[in-house]
């Protein structure tokens, strides 16, 4: 069925787990898709396909190569694959977000599906695939796909610049949500399988020559894409400011989770020979009792960003360790526990310690403090 009519007059349809844009006239198209990707002026159709066969079922290629696979998808959608480009995802088309921004007669529409809960990564993270002999991996869960439609004609250079601005906007949306990479402790900048298709008018009297941030076109691209990416991620995975207001979410990219904190508590219990340690279900309950408390989330956010700045070499080891000590002391004060870092447990920097060792130590001390707090049988805290 048709779900949207674009300012270009083109129609957006949703059927067979796909979003299909039917181009009514000649358009300039720039696509990252494997089928008819790159710059084209002869395309008639653009699609975004949900290739997820269902929960627990692996995605399977319908042809030997990804390009041929996408050609098969196009044919299944009733499209002429010779004049079609497409991108694929495991995000549901039911969760599509369509956002339009305009200034005078300039209109930009972003059509976005997205999810980064599994495949979200930071550019430069360790990679696990190498393309060889024309063979590609199938789409993973978690892909941000963007179809961006501009009602004006752009020069080829401006169309390419629009792709850059669009990508910046996507990354800005993700970073404003503080979404972490699944492959490193960095903040995510996208997923490893994101796709983008940009469509603009053709054969108009005037052409726009710049889609950068200093031009209104760049502004509209930024606003529409940021808003659509955020809404699509919320619809698909629930990712939002509210869901990120959690010390577990803020520290997830540092490999801190319920299990890691519980294991630390078990070690503490054995070391201190605690007679009646909490059982796991009670301990996990305590974690979630404090998980979203305002002061803890605020202090945790600052702690995480200090580690980031040490990682990025914007602050020195001594500066970061000093401030992290203060934060951990404040967290102890919030829950009226003795600071275990006083004395032998302090965060120490040895002359031969590398940055990685110091960061791992900072992460471990945070886990230690949370484990001690959640191991307290304090009815005033855990109700």
From TrEMBL:
<dbReference type="InterPro" id="IPR002808">
    <property type="entry name" value="AdoCbi_amidolase"/>
</dbReference>
<dbReference type="Pfam" id="PF01955">
    <property type="entry name" value="CbiZ"/>
</dbReference>
<dbReference type="GO" id="GO:0016787">
    <property type="term" value="F:hydrolase activity"/>
</dbReference>
<protein>
    <submittedName>
        <fullName>Adenosylcobinamide amidohydrolase</fullName>
    </submittedName>
</protein>
<keyword id="KW-0378">Hydrolase</keyword>
<dbReference type="InterPro" id="IPR052209">
    <property type="entry name" value="CbiZ"/>
</dbReference>
């Amino acid at each position: 069925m048709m779900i949207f009519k674009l300012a270009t007059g083109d129609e957006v349809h949703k059927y067979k787990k796909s979003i299909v844009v039917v181009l009514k006239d000649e358009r300039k198209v720039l696509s990252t898709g494997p089928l008819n990707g790159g710059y084209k002026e002869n395309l008639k159709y653009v699609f975004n396909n949900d290739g997820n066969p269902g929960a627990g079922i692996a995605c399977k290629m319908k042809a030997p190569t990804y390009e041929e696979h996408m050609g098969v998808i196009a044919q299944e959608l009733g499209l002429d694959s010779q004049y079609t480009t497409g991108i694929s995802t495991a995000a549901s088309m039911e969760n599509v977000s369509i956002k339009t921004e305009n200034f005078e007669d300039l209109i930009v529409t972003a059509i976005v599906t997205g999810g980064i809960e599994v495949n979200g990564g930071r550019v430069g993270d360790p990679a696990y695939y190498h393309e060889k002999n024309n063979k590609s991996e199938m789409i993973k869960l978690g892909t941000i796909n963007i179809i961006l439609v501009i009602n004006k004609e752009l020069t080829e250079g401006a169309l390419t610049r629009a792709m850059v601005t669009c990508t910046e906007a996507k990354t800005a949306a993700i970073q404003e949500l503080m979404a972490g990479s699944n492959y490193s402790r960095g903040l995510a900048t996208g997923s490893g399988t994101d796709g983008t298709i940009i469509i603009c008018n053709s054969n108009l009297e005037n052409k726009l020559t710049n889609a950068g941030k200093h031009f209104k076109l760049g502004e509209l691209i930024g606003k529409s894409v940021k808003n659509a990416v955020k809404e699509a991620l919320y619809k698909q995975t629930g990712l939002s400011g509210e869901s990120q207001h959690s010390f577990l979410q803020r520290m997830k990219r540092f490999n801190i989770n319920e299990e890691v904190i519980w294991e630390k508590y078990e070690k503490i219990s054995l070391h201190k020979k605690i007679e009646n340690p909490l059982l796991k279900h009670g301990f996990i309950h305590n974690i979630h009792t404090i998980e979203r408390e305002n002061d803890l989330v605020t202090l945790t956010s600052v702690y995480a960003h200090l580690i980031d700045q040490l990682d990025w070499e914007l602050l020195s080891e001594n500066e970061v360790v000093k401030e992290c000590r203060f934060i951990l002391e404040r967290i102890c004060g919030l829950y009226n526990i003795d600071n275990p870092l006083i004395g032998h447990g302090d965060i120490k920097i040895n002359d031969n310690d590398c940055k990685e060792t110091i960061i791992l130590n900072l992460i471990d001390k945070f886990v230690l403090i949370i484990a001690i707090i959640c191991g307290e049988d304090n009815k005033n805290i855990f109700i």
